[in-house]
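JOB MANIFEST
job_type = single_chain_structure
chain_count = 1
residues = 343
[input]
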Amino acid sequence: MAHGLKMHKLFSKSYYETAKDIQPFWKKATTTPEKDGVTIITAFTTETWSDVMKLTRYWDGPISATIHIDRDDDLSLEEIRQTYESTPELARNVDLHLVSSNNNKLNVLFPRNAERNLARLFARTDYIMDLPTGVIPATDLRRTLEMNRDRIDHLLKSGDMLAIPTFKFTRAGASVPYDKSQLILKLSQDEMVLDDHHWKENEGPTDLERWMDAESLYAVEKYEFHYEPVVIESKTIQPWCSERFLDSRAACIFSSYLQGNEIWVLPDDFMVYSPHYQQQEISDFDNVVENRIYAKYYWEQCVHHARQLDALGLWKTPRSQHIRNQCSRVIQNWGKGLIGKPE
């Protein structure tokens, strides 16, 4: 089978001319990671390439990154190649998968969700952590995972996800806190805030007040389908991100949650947006389109996963509790005669 045909089938919503030029493992790390480890998956452009180097200073572990470049930008590609080969942290830990198109801006030819799936597909560990550009692990997350390996393995192999709260700075010049006590101090001084995207500062399903007092894992109780925390999850068990969206981690998590999987919040670890990070903007038009697609996606996923749970004989078990809570209106309208009996 031709490489282009294979890539286009794997990423069927992408443009063929872009898919055929995908180069998995354009650069492959020299270190072979342990299978039961966690790989960060992420995506970059030539403009955000410097964030890769910053990330390796905070994460001395495997990274599977999609790098999206302009097809005609040979100079930038050569600079990335030279930087990679001359930087030990990159060459040791980072697998780079190359995507080239007519421009490297966020677009439907090969959207960010497809870039996530590409990085996930070629990750070399059993577990992954989807990290947005500009976000860094502030605490020693790898130590937490190693110290709690047995319990974490059990949760991830059962399909559950581990959420790591993400915080951002309210002013420039502040230093990155490295433990929970330092972070809580900065929160009290209004130097930092919880960033649950789509919610106001210090609000959202992560539940800041509960997290500050937590000493052990706790399940998210106020989930809503726009919730998109940084999560650690199984590479193989979880649904793949829907590639109809330009950039939506919420869509990736929503499908898993409807399957009955829990989201457990880690009590002591957290992520931080880099102080000078500027989020890539999506046009007003694309925002409108994305929101309308997501509204339809919500209904579609409710019906799809309800039918799937029913086919598995799990509709009348606790496994269906999430979908019953999230999709009751959809199930009432669509589910009569299709999914069990109306209740």
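[summary]
The chain has a mean pLDDT of 91.
Residues 10 and 19 are 9 Å apart (CA to CA).
exit_status = 0
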